[in-house]
Write a structure and sequence with these properties.
The protein has helices at about 35-50, 55-60, 70-85, 105-115, 130-145, 150-165, 170-185, 190-205, 215-225, 230-240, 245-260, 260-275, 280-290, 295-310, 315-330, 330-340, 350-360, 365-375, 380-385, 385-390, 395-410, 415, 430-440; strands at about 20, 25-30, 30, 90-95, 100-105. It is mostly helical and about 450 residues long.
Length: about 450
């Protein structure tokens, strides 16, 4: 049990506005919370049990009808924590050997009662309709798909939210996150977009310097511009401020992977998964960090299979599994599976790169080259996703030319791509030390 969970709050959830109706729907200040059935049932059970804890057996019996795994309960709790974090005062404590319990944080509860109009700009105090909170959360979920269509959709949602609630800080944070994702992952004028996102975060810091996730986002943007020394300091600040925020640990893991601290990256991604076990992106990067840390080919495939077992509906995880199977034991069947995947604006930004790698690794050179040529005019941060395919076809000079072009651009995900196990042969190229020196010269 964590030390910050030992003190039990005597504030009843009902006294700050949480109620449960006869059908099990949960409301906060008379507004129904938009929750999936399992999360709604779990929160209803926690509210009814307060101040007592709810055991895993009770969750299994009353919410899952007796068919519950520890993993599904952990996913549910992580989802609830993320939703409730926008409200702020209510927490779900994990009690070792006992289950879970709700607590109300006295300081935050008092602050919500004492809100004055001149502080209405702060994200923890501004009053918005629950649909606004739900829209912010949904936009964040859409962003996790990391496709051009997802970026468009998330941007549309969050701009609509800001038009309705221009002072709502969480919406501005999501907007900055959306812009950063677009920029780092290959949208034209990316460096300018990162600068614009940084300006949004600076404005938030002036209004509410303690906004949840602010420091981690600032650090992530600095990583996107390869300003790693400054970013490292901010990541550590973010971990101190938000030790229970999975995104904070995930962003730090990306930083560590980009800077070559792969063993520490494994730990950071493990922490992120523990706090949020339902994220396919986190599972992939955890597996990638294990591969970068020296896992055997057999272990690399096993980690990929485990990620797919947990996230069987994720195209991202399926593609990663195909790539690692091709890495360990290239077979024509894998190339056939890769050819069945249809690419569109809704496809993961790494999809074409992984497919071209599987094709190249498994002997279908012509199809791999055709796919690479189809993205020949794309932004360099898209074109370098084909590094592994070029390396698999012994086109090292072409691979290095693309890397050097990305270095000249001076931003993006190149440092992380260089850590991928399927790109490791690039380290033998005579220009590789100079490439690293340019990346880390900022």
């Amino acid at each position: 049990m964590q030390p910050w969970h030992r003190k039990i709050s005597g504030i009843a959830p009902a006294s700050v506005g949480f109620t449960v109706d006869q059908h099990g729907f949960v409301a906060y200040k008379n507004a129904i919370l938009d929750l999936p059935p399992k999360e709604r049932g779990a929160l209803s059970l926690l509210l009814h049990a307060w101040p007592k804890s709810v055991s895993k057996k009770d969750f299994a019996q009353h919410v899952w009808n007796g068919r519950m795994s520890n993993e599904s309960l952990a996913r549910c709790m992580a989802q609830l924590r993320r939703v409730l974090s926008h409200i702020g005062m209510i927490k779900i404590d994990s009690l070792y050997g006992l289950g879970y319990r709700l607590t109300i944080q006295p300081e935050e509860a008092d602050a919500s009662v004492l809100v004055s109009s001149d502080r209405g700009r702060q994200s923890g105090t501004v009053k918005v309709h629950p649909s606004v909170t739900a829209a912010c959360f949904y936009a964040q979920q859409v962003l996790q798909n990391h496709s051009p269509a997802a970026y468009d959709r998330a941007g549309s949602i969050i701009n609509d939210v800001i038009s309705q609630a221009p002072d709502y800080i969480p919406a501005k944070l999501v907007l900055a996150q959306c812009m950063a994702s677009r920029a780092i992952n290959g949208v034209p004028c990316g460096l300018q977009m990162i600068d614009e996102a940084q300006n949004i975060l600076r404005s938030i810091e002036r209004t509410e310097p303690g906004a949840l996730g602010l420091q981690s986002q600032k650090a992530n943007l600095l990583d996107g511009k390869w300003q790693f020394n400054e970013a490292r300091f901010m990541h550590k600040q973010a971990l101190l401020l938000s030790p229970e925020n999975p995104v904070t640990h995930f962003n730090y893991g990306l930083h560590l992977l980009a800077t070559g601290a792969v063993a520490d990256a494994v730990t950071a991604f493990s922490s992120a998964i523990e706090l949020n076990p339902f994220s396919p992106e986190q599972s992939i990067m955890h597996a990638r960090s294990l591969a970068a840390a020296g896992a055997s080919a057999i272990d690399v495939v096993e980690h990929a299979r485990e990620a797919y077992r947990i996230h069987p509906d994720s195209q991202q995880v399926y593609l990663y599994l195909l790539g690692m199977l091709a890495f360990a034991d290239p077979q024509p069947e894998l190339a056939h599976a890769a050819r069945q995947i249809t690419l569109s604006r809704s496809s993961w930004i790494y999809a074409a790169g992984i497919i071209s790698y599987v094709l190249a690794q498994c002997g279908d050179r012509d199809s791999a080259l055709e796919l690479i040529a189809a993205q020949a005019t794309a932004n360099v941060n898209i074109r370098i996703t084909h590094l592994a395919a070029l390396i698999a076809m012994d086109l090292f000079d072409e691979a290095v030319l693309r890397v050097k072009e990305a270095v000249r651009a001076g931003y993006g995900h190149l440092p992380i791509l260089l850590s991928f196990v399927e790109n490791s042969a690039l380290k033998e190229h005579p220009e590789y030390p100079a490439i690293l020196a340019h990346i880390f010269s900022r």
